[in-house]
Amino acid sequence: MDMTFQYVMIGAMALLGGVGAFLFFSPQPKKKIKGADSLSKVYRESQGEAVEEMAVLNRIIVNLSNRYAKPGEDLETRLMKSGYRYKNIPEYMYRRVINAAAYAMFAVFIGAYMFNFSVEILTILAVGAAIWGFRGPDISINNAIKTRSEKLQMEMGYTLEQFLNLLDAGVGYEDALANCRGIGEFGAFLAKISEQLRLSDSTADAIKKASADIPIFPEMEQFLDLLKSHIIEQQDISTPLHAMALTLREKFNNDIKKKSGSARLRALVVLIGFGGAATLVIALMPLSKVIFR
Questions:
Q1: Distance (Å, rounded) from C-alpha 37 to C-alpha 45?
Q2: Looking at 112, 145, 178, which one is the last position of a domain?
Q3: Residue 65 · residue 89 · CB < 8 Å
Q4: CA contacts within 13 A on the Cβ side of 147
Q5: Is 31 found in the same domain as 99?
Q6: Which of 55, 181, 217, 234 is 20 to 30 A from 174 via CA?
Q7: What is the number of structural domains in the chain?
């Protein structure tokens, strides 16, 4: 069989297998696209039975955008919480397709030229690599959300102390929140809450709007609940916030020590590895001269 034809077949089977596996494991979308019903009605009236093809395409598009979204979070929300790891949904979809194609071609190249696998094995490798590549942007978004959460968590301890110092000095909570602007991303978030409190009708609505693009982790959720209690019920939150700030700063210091220790350990492992390799080369040089003489 001609090699070119084999690779064309591998590509076709990989594409069909990848799409089939994706659709098989994809759940039905929970949300409808805006205007989908009216568009479908117009199309049905103009094209008749061909609307079924549009319905299939519609399902594929929705699945492509929502397949790996967390419950209650759509793709746009996840992009916002990641700090826009990708500028928009079209770029995200483009990266998924490019990644899938690149991973599949790389797997075929390695399998064919280095291991001389059969067409069947190459097809399986291509499908698996394409699916893994297709998931790459989702993994990247999740990692970006995790990194951003850790950064916010590191900034919280110090910023909360500044916020509490302002409250203790008699500054109103809205002004205290606004004055935290410039103290990292968490300070900008507090200033954003202050702006929304002035614009929104309710405290809950203001905090919801301000935190729409912020990753929510346990400490953040606890802080927002305390802030609501202070604003709505006029509860004194100094003691729990001081305790939270102290805990977060201690955690931050411990994390710095752990990372410093890990960096030293990695440097030691690399040094030992290079030293061991150099020693092995020196030790084997006399033996190699005897063997190849």
A1: 12
A2: 145
A3: yes
A4: 10
A5: yes
A6: 217
A7: 2
Residue 262, pLDDT above cutoff 90:
no
Q: Which residue has the higher pLDDT, 27 or 223?
A: 223
CA–chain centroid gap for 134, Å, is 14
Same domain as 71, residue 18:
yes
Q: Alpha helices of 87-199 — where are they, by DSSP H?
A: 89-113, 119-168, 173-178, 184-199
Q: pLDDT tens digit string along 102-153? A: 999 999 888 888 888 888 888 898 999 999 999 999 999 999 999 999 999 9
Residue written as tokens 């061991």? 276
Structural domain that includes position 91: 3-145
Same domain, 124 and 203: no
Residue reference for tokens 């020196």: 282
146, 219, 250 from 223: Cα distances, Å: 19, 6, 17
User: For residue 263, is pLDDT > 90?
Assistant: no
Task: Tell me the helix, strand and coil percentages in the chain, rounded to 5.
Answer: 80, 0, 20
Instruction: Tally the C-alpha atoms within 13 A of residue 278's C-alpha that lie toward its C-beta.
Output: 6
- Of the candidates 79, 104, 90, the residue with the CA atom closest to the CA atom of residue 19: 104
Neighbours of 38 (CB within 10 A): 9
Tell if the pTM clears 0.70, that is, is over it. no
> What confidence tens digit (pLDDT) does each residue in 183-230 have?
899 999 999 999 999 998 888 899 999 999 999 999 999 999 998 888
Residues 55 and 100 in one domain: yes
Residue 162 structure tokens: 């500044």
The reply to whether 72 and 168 lie within a common domain is no
82 and 40 fall within a common domain? yes
3-class state of residue 198 by DSSP: helix
Is residue 263 a part of any domain in this protein? Answer: no
- Please report, for the chain, how many H helices and E strands are present, in that order: 11, 0
Q: How far is it, in rounded angstroms, from Cα 190 to Cα 174?
A: 9
